[in-house]
Amino acid sequence: MRMVVSEPNDKNIYYTRIDQSCHALHSVSEKAVLADVCLLSFFSKHLVLAASHIFESPLASDILPRFPELLESEAVIVDLRDDCRDFRDYVDAKRDQRRDEATWFRSSTDDLARFLDEHVPAVMNWHLEYEMDFLQAAVVESLQDTASPLRRALLTAGERKLNQLLARIEKLPRASRQFLFEISDQILGDESSVLKAQINAAYYVSGAVNKGLHPWLPENSYVSVETGAAVLEQQSNGAVWKQCFMETANRLGLDVALLEECPQLILSLRSTHAKEMRRFRDRWWKLVEDGADRDAPLGDMRELVVCELAREHNLRRKAHAHSVASLGLGVLGVVVGGIGLVPSLGFSVASAGLGLASVAGGVGSLIAGDRRPFFAVTELVRGAAADSEMRRDYR
């Protein structure tokens, strides 16, 4: 297996909604996960899934074998601990660590490991101890800060319990998420759900930051990427970006339901129109980042998209006017040179040649003018949606 490193311009997203632990706090359906995977694959180079989430989640273990192209095309990448050679090795390591968890000893787990080894061409490595240290530090800082949203949310538990909780976590030589959950249940009892939700958020952030990814976080997450103490910046959240993209798609008149239900359509566009998809992705992210710089609400992309469409329309109008002029001159040159109105045969041929060059230049200008990413991708998607055979196969 090849190792993939996330580059900043790739805008890769660490997708955590398939995590089984998250499902106890937020209800998630297979349809919703598939819709996320499709839409996120449209505007990010890679969607990264944690290996543990795939093995522990029925949603992931059902979806991926049905759509192995997601893995084979590297639209979806799986992370793998750097001390494991492959997924079979990873399962063996988990069985050594979690002898009392039946999930890791089922025959279906072996089947899933074989499937991943056969269909995953590249992985993203990570270091277990590094992420555990980050997780522990993030939770400790949030509990230490008396002004933090997490600390305020836990005030009903009382100062004594909070201090006891903090002391227990600080004494751990290294904290896994499971250890933190157990300590929370022991000390807070029925009041542990708020803390466990934020432990989850810190866990997702640690998994994202240490791989150079952007996290997908549940709503109301109190953990910051930088310090573990403040509210996460909105523009770092993959869930917010999905909403931004849906605003964009709706404004472009795209069939969002089709995009959500048809992973093969997205993969086809990524494969056969990679250049146009990359241009769209780059331009779309520029809009998102410009909006963030101006403190524009990222949940509402309508105004930004309207401005972008106006810009592209203006470019198209100018390109069309230039192309018509070039085509006219070109045709005139062909006619003059071709019918021999010019006495010299050499000049006649030259005139015809120049005329054809002008025609080609006019067409080329029109094509160049169509290199407007929103317009180009909109046409590509509409073309695919209009193909009844394709649509039947995808649904």
Q: How would you characterize the overall build of this protein?
A:
Helix content is 66%, strand content 5%. Strands 1-5-4-3-2-6 form a 6-stranded parallel sheet. By secondary structure, it is mostly helical. The longest helix has 37 residues, at 302-338. The protein has 20 helices and 6 strands. Mean pLDDT is 79; it is low at 224-235 and 329-370. Helix 2 packs parallel to helix 15 (263-272). The chain folds into 3 domains: 2-126, no CATH class; 130-232, no CATH class; 255-395, no CATH class.
List low-confidence stretches.
Answer: 224-235, 329-370
First-to-last CA distance: 31 Å
Radius of gyration equals: 27 Å
Question: Helix- and strand-based class?
Answer: mainly alpha
Per the principal axes of the C-alpha atoms, what is the gross shape? Answer: globular
Question: How many separate domains?
Answer: 3
Topology:
Blueprint: E1 2-3, E2 13-14, H1 20-23, H2 30-43, E3 47-50, H3 51-56, H4 58-66, H5 69-72, E4 76-81, H6 87-97, H7 107-119, E5 122-126, H8 128-144, H9 149-153, H10 159-171, H11 177-188, H12 193-209, E6 214-215, H13 238-252, H14 256-261, H15 263-272, H16 274-293, H17 302-338, H18 345-369, H19 373-386, H20 388-394
Helix pairs in contact: 2-13, 2-15, 6-7, 8-10, 8-12, 10-11, 11-12, 13-17, 15-16, 16-19, 17-18
Question: Can you tag this structure with a few keywords?
Answer:
mainly alpha; 3 domains; six-stranded parallel β-sheet
Brief summary of the model shown:
With about 400 residues, the chain is mainly alpha-helical. It is built from 20 helices and six strands.
